[in-house]
Design brief:
The structure holds two protein chains of two kinds. Chain A is of the alpha+beta class. Chain A has nine helices and seven strands, in the order ββαβββββαααααααα. Chain B is mainly alpha-helical. In chain B, 69% of the residues lie in helices and 3% in strands. Classes of the chains: A alpha+beta, B mainly alpha. At the A-B interface, helix 3, helix 5, helix 8 and helix 9 of A face strand 2 of B.
């Protein structure tokens, strides 16, 4: 019986070197003893022993930092929490996240995403700031439950790679930023709801979403960004009709 | 020196026909069946306004094999649409907090589906009662 620890697995990796390659193309690597490796470990083995020029992002190796998102056999996944033994036999295809410009190999441009995160005021804006002497902003467990899952987002962008509407319209604010928006708008200590709603009207706001819903299915943290986007369609619509009644 | 020359891969135009997006496409297309049902009902209303002969012709059409086949297909599509509609219902509403924790989305879907089923059944029973 062959030793499973010595099993060799083939990885097909989309390579792109800016300034050298006109377009990305696949490179093939055989990784020995890969049976119990995560895809990230396999990539690190390739970089250490086969091709030092292979570029990819990673940091924590335990699905917390959100750096190693990539397309594995066509699905957006974290390379660190995807194990080769769980994938169907045969070559494993690894590509950079869909819908993003490729910087180099598996590294994508994240600038657009960071701008979107910045645009939704990603911090608590209290109605009346308290001094330290006045004590903390208190919250009940029910108030925490209203937004808690949205605060679990690790900015891995798998949801963007899964979103066909983001593919069609790169300016669409997208699922991840909307989850963060809802994290703050749903927080009882926050009073910045109106400012955030003003950023999500129109085609580049929530209205590019057609409730495809795959963003929530690929989320490694069960954040359910589809819920964040779709409940804000209602909020955006109400805001549109009620804006004349509002007292500024 | 900035060496960044990002490469933008062309997005496939047929994403809607491929897994996992196919289920979404079928779900959205099943909405056309609801419009189809509406069109059949409007046709009935229109023929009613056109007099007894027109109404009789409409009833004859309803009894035809083509119409029965059409209705079977429409019913199947509408039932699928109802099922998927309630599946995404919890995605479109704020989290429902009971006590200290959010109600599971599965529970929301189940309760809403049962409620809608009960309403439909009541409507059928009332209609049958009135018709008797």
């Amino acid at each position: 019986m062959p030793d499973p620890a010595k099993k060799t697995i083939e990885l097909r990796i989309l390579r792109y070197q800016p300034g050298v390659d006109a377009a990305p193309s696949f490179g093939t690597f055989e990784v020995a003893g890969a049976e119990n490796m995560s895809v990230l470990e396999a990539l690190q083995t390739i970089k250490d022993t086969l091709d030092g020029s292979l570029s990819f992002r990673w940091s924590c190796r335990m699905a917390v930092c959100g750096s190693c998102g990539m397309m594995i056999n066509g699905e957006p996944k974290l390379a660190c929490s995807t194990f080769l033994r769980d994938l169907p036999p045969g070559p494993v295809t690894v590509e950079p996240l869909n819908n993003f410009p490729i910087e180099r190999d598996l590294v994508i441009s994240v600038g657009g995403f960071v701008k979107k995160i910045e645009s939704i005021y990603p911090y608590i804006m209290p109605k009346e700031p308290k001094t330290v002497e006045q004590g903390p902003y208190r919250q009940t467990p029910a108030q925490l439950a209203a937004y808690e899952s949205f605060s679990d987002c690790i900015n891995c962008m798998l949801c963007y790679a899964a979103c066909p509407q983001f593919g069609e319209n790169p300016d669409f604010i997208g699922p991840g930023a909307m989850a963060l928006l809802q994290r703050y708008n749903g927080d009882s200590r926050d009073a910045g709801r109106q400012k955030r709603l003003d950023t999500i009207h129109g085609e580049n706001g929530v209205w590019s979403c057609t409730a495809v819903g795959i963003c929530s299915e690929v989320c490694p943290k069960s954040v359910d960004p589809a819920n964040a986007v779709n409940q804000n369609k209602t909020n955006s619509a109400f805001d549109f009709f009620l804006r004349f009644l509002r007292k500024e | 020196m900035n060496e960044s020359r990002p490469y933008r891969r062309p997005a496939p135009k047929d994403w809607w026909a491929k897994a996992p997006y196919r289920a979404y496409t079928v779900r959205e297309m099943s909405g056309l069946a609801v419009a189809g049902y509406g069109a059949v009902l409007f046709a009935g209303l229109y023929s009613l306004s056109q007099g007894p002969e027109s109404w009789a012709a409409y009833v004859r059409f309803l009894q035809s094999p083509v119409s029965l086949l059409l209705h079977a297909a429409l019913l199947a599509a509408v039932l699928y649409h109802v099922k998927t509609w309630f599946q995404i219902l919890p995605k479109t509403m704020p989290k429902l907090i009971l006590g200290r924790a959010p109600v599971a989305q599965r529970t929301i879907t189940r309760v809403a589906t049962i409620f809608a089923g009960a309403c439909s059944l009541a409507l059928v029973l009332i209609t049958l009662g009135v018709a008797r």
